[in-house]
């Protein structure tokens, strides 16, 4: 199989013995993005515009902080991100401040009647606008967006290699399946990347591999639990010593489990 620069990360991940090669891909990408955000990206005007607008999810804020690699850089990112978000929230509130004050001063009878009215009040409108903004911010993350964009390209490469390169298809068939998160990603991506015939062939093979390996790891974690029975003290662990860790990762994807 002739390697190209855009296929190397994919083939390297599929050469790794693991429970999910796509977790390997994603973890490597995530590590690279954490380093990049706190390095060159920090000084790029377009990068700062992006982080000011999107910020980061809880998981990636934790990772950025816990690296302790560039606390000043992270502080600058947080400072300008908060400045922009504070301005947006302040503008939302100031547009409705007078109406909210008036609504808070209306009589009890008017307040009760408004509760049973189908007409949306100014307070209701403000609640909806504020929740829309907070929900949008909660779901927004610069690193997640970068990961999703790159993983989408990798999925395209996986499908291309699967149907065009026999050597890669053999590598795919020798995998231990995928975590359920990335199984879902692969299944969902067939709608965009594959024809009806290709989808049927791919899913038939994928689910055969997946179910076989889900049963394998369930057997391994089952034996892990049985080893705590005193009657099995002298029995071999087989492949179950780390089965609990691997089974959790099989269910939810790569996790930073200690």
Alpha carbon gap, first and last residue: 37 Å
The figure for the number of domains is: 2
Total beta-strand segments: 0
Backbone structural class: mainly alpha
Count of DSSP helices?
12
Low-confidence stretches: none
Q: Note the overall shape.
A: globular
Return Rg in Å.
25 Å
Strand content: under 5%
* Main sheet record: none
Q: What average pLDDT do the residues reach?
A: 90
Percent of residues in helices comes to over 70%
SSE series: HHHHHHHHHHHH
Describe this structure in words.
- It is built from twelve helices and no strands.
- It has 258 residues and is mostly helical.
- The longest helix has 34 residues.
Keywords:
258 residues; mainly alpha; 2 domains; 0% strand; globular
Question: In summary, what is this structure?
Answer:
The chain has twelve helices and no strands. It has 258 residues and is mainly α.
Write the layout of secondary structure elements.
Elements: H1 8-14, H2 21-37, H3 45-54, H4 58-66, H5 71-104, H6 108-115, H7 122-138, H8 142-164, H9 166-173, H10 180-193, H11 196-226, H12 243-252
